[in-house]
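Slide 14.
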Amino acid sequence: MANSRGHHLSRRGLLSAGGAVALGALISACGGNDDSGSGKSGGSASGGPWTFTDDRKQQISLKARPQRVVTYVGAAAALWDFGVRDQIVGVYGPAKLANGQRDPQVGNVDISKVEIIGNAYGEFNIEKYAALRPELLVDHMFTPDTLFYVPEKSKGKIFELAPSVGIATGSASLPTPIQRYSELAAALGADLKAPAVVEAKARFERAAQAVRDAVKANGRIKVLAGSGSADLFYVSSPAKNTDLMYFKELGVDLLVPQKTDKDGYFEPLSWENADKYQADIIMLDARTQALQPKDLTSKPSWKDLPAVKAGQVVPWNAEPIFSYAGSAPYLEAIAKSIASAKKVS
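Slide 15: predicted structure.
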């Protein structure tokens, strides 16, 4: 998890829930739809009640499989890749760019077919959410029991409208949250034996092997994962970030910051001290809210970093899509970067 994740967590509670009168009227309109199928944790069946146990160890029980699901964009991206599409009626989080195109964090989700109830941190329109008649809310959890992007101050009102599922996406190697989202997708009715899903998993496994092979062929290469903001350069830790944990398992020599934030995800450095760590490749947070190489040319120390001088700065999806289809291209790109990198640090 890169800098903005920690920044977001410190900003929880900024959204004040308003429109109480209108909301009260809308709450009564929300409820389960009894004409859908059912599912259970790790699978699904036709007819009868639906249950799923999330990563808070909470069992969600409904009369029938939910047909109206609202999710954080990252959760929507994962479920969409596994085949859950018609049920996703709304999303929140970075979904649409200023030019109207999809934000990369929403993956392959067709944003013309879902209601966007918030497009940035702190944005969660409760009235729009209630109007969607949600039957289930799904979100990442980067810290235990905390649904990412659900505003702390208004979560009580939000949780009154529908049960929620939290999938742990921190402190676990990448295949684990991918597996959990596949289980949730199956419970929601997805066919995990569909050709597209099977091929995506095979591609993911080939890509993982490509990373192993690249490391074996060019094993001296040291990699730093980081994110830039106006005031700070955040060096991310492979001890907590799920994708970085997996890269280390695949053999990548990832730099480990010495003094991380309280959640253990990153070490914040002033730009004057951005050269504290030297690496051959810098994986730079490519999310919309993070500064990109063109934005960093005036920052002290940045242009003098060996990897920057060598042109070995590559985009990093600091919030990976937790599906095989979403993560395979990412692994392929990392393998290619390591295989072609020169030792400069």
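Speaker note: The chain is about 30% helix and 20% strand.
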